[in-house]
From TrEMBL:
InterPro entries for the chain: Caa3_assmbl_CtaG-rel (IPR019108)
Membrane topology: Multi-pass membrane protein
Nucleotide-binding recorded as keyword: no
Superkingdom of this protein's organism: Bacteria
Protein name: Putative membrane protein
Keyword Transport in annotation: no
UniProt organism field: Fulvimarina manganoxydans
Pfam entry (one): Caa3_CtaG
Keywords: Cell membrane, Membrane, Transmembrane, Transmembrane helix
Chain residue ranges for the region called Disordered: 1-20
One GO cellular component term noted in the UniProt record for this chain: plasma membrane
Length: 234
C-alpha cells in the first residue's frame, strides 16, 4: 500500500509540475492574444481607416497590419494558451485550402471594382476587413497550431504558399505601367502621385507584407528538420 501511495504521490507531483511549467507558456499566449486584439482595435479606430479610402498605400498598410501582424499574434496566442483545444487543421488538404482561401480573399478584394466599392461604402469596407482577418487567421492558425514534425512541415508549406501569392500580387501592382484603380482612391497620402501610390502599395505587399510568412515558414521548417535529425540520432 505504501508503494501504491508513493506512486500516486509521484504522479500527482508530476502533474503539478507540468501545470506549473505550462502556466508561463499559457500566460505568454494570453498576452499575445490580447496584443493582437489591441492592435486590431488600434488599426480600425485609427487614421488608416479614413486614409485607406483615398490612398492605396494606406489601404495596403492597414491590410498587411491585419494579416501579417494582428492575425499571427492572435493565432500564436491561441496555440500557446490552449494547445489542445483546436480542431485538426493539419492535413495537406487543409494547408492547400488555407492558402487558396487566402489567395481568393486577397485577390478578389484587390479587383478594382471591389476595392473601389470598399473605399466608398462603409458596409462593404467592414466586410472586406473581416474577410482579411478571417483569411489571415485561417492561414496562421493552420500553420502555428502544429506540434508534430509532419504538422510543422505542412504549416511551413501553408505559409510559403501564402507568401508566394501575396508576392505575386504585390509585384503585379508594383510594376504595372498604368493606374488600375480610380484616381479618387489613389490620391496618395504620402506626397506621391496616384500611380506612385499604387506602386508603393504593391511594393509594400511584395516585400514587407510577405516577410512574416517567409520567416515563420523557415522557422517551422527548421523545427521539423531538427526534430527529424534528433529522431534519427535516437
Amino acid at each position: 500500500m505504501d508503494v501504491g501511495m508513493g506512486s500516486a504521490r509521484r504522479q500527482k507531483g508530476g502533474r503539478s509540475t507540468a501545470r506549473r511549467s505550462a502556466a508561463p507558456i499559457r500566460g505568454t499566449g494570453i498576452t499575445l492574444l490580447l496584443l493582437g486584439f489591441a492592435l486590431l482595435l488600434a488599426l480600425w479606430l485609427g487614421p488608416l481607416v479614413p486614409l485607406s479610402a483615398v490612398s492605396f498605400s494606406a489601404h495596403m498598410i492597414l491590410h498587411l497590419s491585419i494579416v501579417s501582424l494582428a492575425a499571427p499574434l492572435i493565432a500564436l496566442g491561441i496555440a500557446l494558451a490552449w494547445p489542445n483545444r483546436l480542431p485538426p487543421l493539419f492535413g495537406l488538404g487543409a494547408a492547400i485550402g488555407a492558402s487558396l482561401f487566402d489567395m481568393f480573399v486577397v485577390w478578389i478584394w484587390h479587383a478594382p471594382v471591389l476595392h473601389e466599392s470598399a473605399a466608398t461604402t462603409r458596409a462593404i469596407f467592414v466586410l472586406q476587413q473581416l474577410s482579411f482577418l478571417a483569411a489571415g487567421l485561417f492561414v496562421w492558425t493552420s500553420a502555428l497550431s502544429g506540434v508534430t514534425r509532419r504538422e510543422r512541415a505542412i504549416g511551413s508549406l501553408t505559409l510559403i504558399g501564402t507568401f508566394l501569392h501575396m508576392t505575386m500580387l504585390g509585384v503585379l501592382l508594383g510594376v504595372t505601367p498604368r493606374l488600375l484603380y480610380s484616381p479618387s482612391v489613389c490620391i496618395g497620402a504620402f506626397g506621391v502621385s496616384g500611380l506612385e501610390d499604387q506602386w508603393l502599395g504593391g511594393v509594400l505587399m511584395a516585400t514587407v507584407g510577405g516577410l512574416p510568412y517567409l520567416v515563420a515558414a523557415l522557422v517551422l521548417a527548421g523545427l521539423a528538420l531538427s526534430e527529424n535529425a534528433a529522431s534519427e540520432r535516437a
